Every structure is written in C-alpha cells, then in structure tokens.
Amino acid sequence: MAAQAAARTIIENCAIATVDANDTEYASGYVVVAGNRIESIGAGKAPEGLENVVRRIDGTGHLVTPGLVNTHHHFYQWITRGLATDHNLFNWLVALYPTWARIDERMVKAAAQGSLAMMARGGVTTAMDHHYVFPKGSGDLSGAVIGAASDMGVRFTLARGSMDRSEKDGGLPPDFAVETLEGALAATEETVKKHHDASFDAMTQVAVAPCSPFSVSTELMKQGAELARRLGVRLHTHGSETVEEEQFCKELFGMGPTDYFESTGWLGSDVWMAHCVHMNDSDIAAFARTGTGVAHCPSSNARLAAGIARVPDMLKAGVPVGLGVDGTASNESGELHTELRNALLINRLGAHRENALNARQALRLGTYGGAQVLGRADQIGSLEAGKLADLVMWKIDGLGHSTIADPVTAIVFGAAAPVTLSLVNGKPVVEDNHLITVDEDAIARDARAEAQRLARIVAQG
Q1: pTM attached to this predicted model
Q2: How far apart are CA 150 and CA 148, in angstroms?
Q3: Average pLDDT of the residues of the chain
Q4: Confidence check: pLDDT of 216 > 90
Q5: 224, 261, 263: which is closest to 245 by C-alpha?
Q6: CA-to-CA distance for 177 and 189, rounded, in angstroms?
Q7: What's the CA gap between 23 and 18, in Å, rounded?
C-alpha cells in the first residue's frame, strides 16, 4: 500500500523574504508546506494540481518570513519583572539573586509559559532558555521549562546552566543558590541524556551552559566544555557583557574574558555567547577564527547600561550573530520582534552610525543568524525547499504599516506587526495574533499568582 501523501498548506499572494544566501524576495509569491517541510516557494501562484491540499491561505497584505529564532533568554525572570530598574548589571544581580534563589518548579513553569507565550505571539518559532538557578529542593526545573515549550508547540533549546562560585568564593550569587561542581556536571549530563534530540526536525535540544565567569569556577568551565563535546551538544554562556566583567576577569584570572574563554576550551564553532558588548579587535578576530557565535541582546544591554555591542564589526569579520530577548527582568517586553528594530537603531548610535545595519541585516540577525548560532542553519532560519516549515505571516496592510512601501522595512522600522499566522514544524501556533495552542489568559493569571507567591516568600525571609 502506498504511503499517504503529506497534507499540504498553500500560502499565496504574499510578499516573501526568504533570507536565503541570496536574500531572494518575491513581491507576490507562494509557499507550499507539505507535512513539516517547505516543499516549494516562488513567485506568482502555487503550482496547479497539488494533491491533499488541506488549507489554502490568501496572503494579500502580508509579508512571509522565516520564523524568528531567539538565542538568549532566562524564562524564570518573567515573574520578577519591573524590579531594580535603575541598576547596572552587577548591582542588578546582587539585588535580585536573593529573590531568584527562592524559585521552585511551579514558579518556573508559570514563568516559562509567560515568556514563551509573549515570544511565540510575536513570531518566535524557535525559543531558547538559559536556566542556571537551581535552589536545593526546588523540583524538576528543566522538566518544567521543557514541558512548557512542548505545550506551546515551539521549537526549543534548553541551555542547562549552572553556578558553583558563590559569595564565599568571590562570586555574586548567595551561597545557597549554587550547585557543587560535581552536582552541576552530573545534573547537566542527565538533562542532556534525557531530553536532547539530535534529529533534523528535533523539537527539543539541550546545550551545556555554565552561567558566567564571575559565577562559575574555572574547573566547571573546563569540565563543562569537555562534557558538551563528549555528548555532542553545544555550549553557551555569558561573555564580555560589561566593563566590570572585564575587570573581574583580569583581576581573578590575569587576562580578559576572551583569552580566559580560550584557555578553558570555550571558543569554537559549537559555542555561542550572550552579549559580547566589550570586545576589542583581537576578541572579534578570535571569535571569527574559531566560529564562536554571539547572541546580541540590544534592549537588555541598554536597560542595564552595558553598552553597544560591535555587531557591524562582528558581521564584517564573519562572526555568527543572532538576536536574544534576554531575561524579562532586564527586558520587560519579552518580545523578540521588537529586537529587530532595536538592534538596528542602537547600533546606529555606535561608530558606524547610519551604515551600521539595514533592515535586511536586522531581519537576518533574527532568523538565519539565530539558526546559525544554535547550530541549526541547515534546518531553519530561511525559507527554502527541504527546510522545516517554521514561518510567520506578518500583517502589513493595517494602520501601522500601510504607507511603508517596502515590506521588510515595514516590519523592522515600523511598529510591531501583527502575526496572522505562525507555523512551527508545519503546525499553526498563532492565528490572527492569538496563540491557539494555549490559553493566554490562564497563563497570565498563573504567572501573576506565582509572582505574588514568590514575593510573599521573599518578604517572610
């Protein structure tokens, strides 16, 4: 018996930005999705006579792009938004660690649902969470985050974080908020073996992700890198975020962050780092030489007064760069599509001014660049036949965009565009600007309740 043909969805009459290697665009074109793959894409109408078409969508007034890829986040922070709003990074961490150290599984699940919902509703089809706070007795926090992403229906990478350098060791986290070296490594390995899927269309992957040089011992950095490479997964951490971090590394290790990372095995094509704001020419050259990726988080960098990352110089050197929301305690909006605009505008305040980034470069950062950074550029990040069907239809004929002639300029320079349809793995997650896989109102209620419960626990000491 012949296998049943995959169900097809056809989108027609839409502008398309493929973000492929040639930046191919169509003023009016079509996309055919068969099962969880893009079957074909092109100008004009879809081919005639296609079988098993279950849905045909008129995309008039829309731009279709690859789904957005988030490369750095801390979901648990959804329930601690709006705190320490006038602090730099180190002071902000000192202010919030005592609260974060009291999170538990219920709180993390509710926070993950809120973070994911906000991103998915705004066009994110692949999300990422760097979770590194594991208080004793707090439950299965990794499982809670992965479960939330599965319920939402988004593609997901969990960067299983860790900290073992507490206040008594010269770090910032409270002593009761960190793991032991052995415990962190064992728990990370268990998480990889339980949850990581290496297949082409994987919905869940896991990376090894000690938190940062100032909250992690050198031994955890070294052994974490060895663990990741033994297990065949990627590596993630924070790097070169602030001037204070650079001073910390020089005082503690006798070298700057990039040299320290190289000495611990943390440069390579399987590594990506968040922020990378304070990078000199030598640092950028080292990242380019080794293929080390960067998660650029413009709003968070501004919120914490960290500075302006040298993204144009990184791109020119060949460094893979994607975009990140970062935790919502330092980017309260929690949205990635606004980071397209903020990346462009903030980088134009830097040395390159109006030549820093253009609209298409910004879109590439949020799509293909993110796929590169997560090691999935052959699967997602551009609209090409054979790739996974992760795509977004942005409505650009409404009040906010109707007088901007160029569709890509409309979604990058203009107001946040509504999402009429978002497909992940060929399945709808957003319809008419609303999530259809979960109850948004219930998520908001649960997150609010857990934020209030956390506040009560902290107040009680």
Answers
A1: 0.97
A2: 5
A3: 96
A4: yes
A5: 261
A6: 20
A7: 6
C-alpha–C-alpha distance, residues 104 and 120, integer Å: 24
Please name every residue paired with 273 in a beta bridge, in sequence order, or none if there are none. Answer: 237, 294
**155-162 and 391-395 strand pairing:** unpaired
Q: Which amino acid is at 111?
A: A
**What is the model's pLDDT at position 3?**
52
Contact assessment for residue 225 and residue 193, using Cβ atoms and an 8 Å cutoff: no
How far apart are the C-alpha atoms of 411 and 396, rounded to whole Å? 8
- Angstrom distance (rounded) from CA 348 to CA 360: 15
pLDDT above 80 (res 53): yes
